[in-house]
Design brief:
Helix content is 34%, strand content 16%. The chain is α/β, with parallel strands linked by helices. Helix 5 packs parallel to helix 6, helix 7 (231-240) packs parallel to helix 9 (269-277) and helix 10 (302-312) runs parallel beside helix 11 (337-349). The protein is globular, with a radius of gyration of 23 Å. The chain starts with 6 loop residues before the first strand and ends with a helix. S-adenosyl-L-homocysteine binds next to strand 11 and strand 13.
Length: 399
Amino acid sequence: MTSQATAIVPDIAARADAPAAAADGRQDLLGLTRSEIAAALVAAGEPEKAAKMRASQLWHWIYYRGSRDFAEMTTLAKDMRERLAGRFTVGRPQASRDLKSVDGTRKWLLKFADGQEAECVHIPEDDRGALCVSSQVGCTLTCKFCHTGTMKLVRNLDAGEIVGQVMLARDHLEEWPSPKDGRMLSNIVMMGMGEPLYNFDNVSKALKIVMDNEGIAISKRRITLSTAGVVPMIARCGAELGVNLAISLHAVRDDIRDVIVPINKKYPIKDLLAACAAYPGLSNARRITFEYVMLKGVNDTPADAKELVRLLKGIPAKVNLIPFNPWPGAPYECSSDEAIRKFSDIVFNAGYSSPVRTPRGRDIMAACGQLKSDSVKRSKADILREQAAKEATAAAVPA
Ligand code: SAH
């Protein structure tokens, strides 16, 4: 990591002080469905008859225009705007760190209302860009080559915290109101921290908001959900969201995959591939991506490549070869360029696209598998101890 590569972008420092949403007891509207917004309005005393229409108006301001300030929402009567501002907020996660790579990749460390943190990465191309979104603080999976896997699961992110990552990125990219073309945030990959299919209800709710045509309007064809292989959830993901699916395969033999992607012990390769073959809407134009991290001496021989081709038979598939991205203390090394090239050639010659992914944002630890935050799960006892300490300090300070 060079000091040149990592620059804190100054305008964010100011934003980092923005108060966390809902800290003052007002309810955060971010992450609510339209009907939940309508119900919240009724609960706040707004007339029931107009609630549905008001919810649509709010939706437009929040998700199409990116507005956070009720005063701007001029399609609502002034007195109503004032009432809403007293009861509600439109929150964002706090960007407590903002790093920019020499290659343009940008990583935000996000702090949520309870102080827990997760990371989110924007990967720009010439005329578009993908946002890599986290679904959990930490992860339960313990994949051996993944930095996030060294963290315990701290908690799931809720729908507002997941959508909040998209909203924050759009704020910074200044893409409001929701542009139709030429977006630098054109694609979403659920490939950040966590296993999205272990937090599916929240992920699903968030992605439905992201896909909604009257708001952020990123279509399901531009969204990819990546899973290590939570087999029983794959069909539901297809039926409910219909987004592109990526599978973190990484090994072609159960004995190896059991070690490096331990969820394989529960859902072995055969079951995983059967679930993939049944994913709705597959065609040559709509293929499943199989991600394969190249680990020296572990999964990178020509025999592995041939076995991969055999396994994928009958599934509309493309393969994404990911050079292993190192992190401090990682027990693996990246395969040699030659091994990667040979592997790729075998898969390619069998008729599958098999690009080698160019690592992006390695200098700021933003590449695949490098994300991690300092969040730790606090036990109930810890929370009680902290509360007691706070109360003791407060009692010791004379009023
Ligand atoms: N839990 C989901 C979402 C995380 S996606 C999943 O496993 O798919 C993150 C992607 O980066 C996965 O394909 C993961 O296997 C890959 N990855 C993890 N650590 C990596 C590393 N050190 N180098 C390259 N890719 C890595």
